[in-house]
Amino acid sequence: MKSAVIIGGGQFPRKAFPRFLVSEADIVVCCDGAARNYLRNFPDRTPDMIIGDLDSLSGTFLESYEGPWLKVSDQETNDQTKAFDWLIQTHPDISEIHFIGATGKRADHTIANLSLLTEYAARTDGRISIDSVNDNETAFPMLDSGSFLCGKGRPVSIFSPDNTLKIKSAGLEWPTDNVIFDNWWKASLNRACADQVTLNFNHPSKVLVVLGD
Fold first, then answer.
1. pTM of this prediction?
2. Which residues pair with 201 in a beta bridge?
């Protein structure tokens, strides 16, 4: 099984852990103009693919670039989704995907890119481990009840667009049992009071968990 990173056009990480994920990935895919930032940070490894509508890369760059690239003009999906689609279609043995540079710089891009994690998880039936990692947070989707290790005292935020969802929690300082998910902030800014957090859903749904430093 293989790991992959999808490099977005947000803030490129400076800290060791997200950069380690990039350096150890079996497959590196860059979204459009994010290729420039990637190559500045990892000049000795050509991306396995640059993909997107390529509106952020000049013709001069593409003419001189010797690696593979693919233009996808579909405006119904963003470049992150184009990269995800290409990756799962061409590499069915992928077991984990880390999104790097999906956040920062623009709030609208950050919100859109993070919200898409639950869509990707649903499309792959949860068989691929998916997360978005930056210098300050790790975000990952959950589609049903489960537990995760995060360490006591770590900031934990939970987001869902499903106002019919009820989540009983263990390991959080402020239990989510009575939260109605009718606005994004409703289960945010929590904190782990145990090393492991358990979330029990009343039905399968789309949830995004964000862990702070």
1. 0.94
2. 167
Amino acid at 185: W
DSSP string, 25-59: -SEEEEETTHHHHHHHH-TTS--SEEEE--TTS-H
List per-residue pLDDT tens for the chain, 213 residues long. Answer: 899 999 999 999 999 999 999 999 999 999 988 999 999 999 999 999 999 888 777 777 877 788 888 888 877 889 999 999 999 999 999 999 999 999 998 999 999 999 999 999 999 988 999 999 999 999 999 999 999 999 999 999 999 999 999 999 999 999 999 999 999 999 999 999 999 999 999 999 999 999 998
What whole-number distance in Å separates Cα of residue 80 and Cα of residue 52? Answer: 8
Residue in the block written with tokens 């380690």 = 20
Tokens matching residue 77: 């999906």
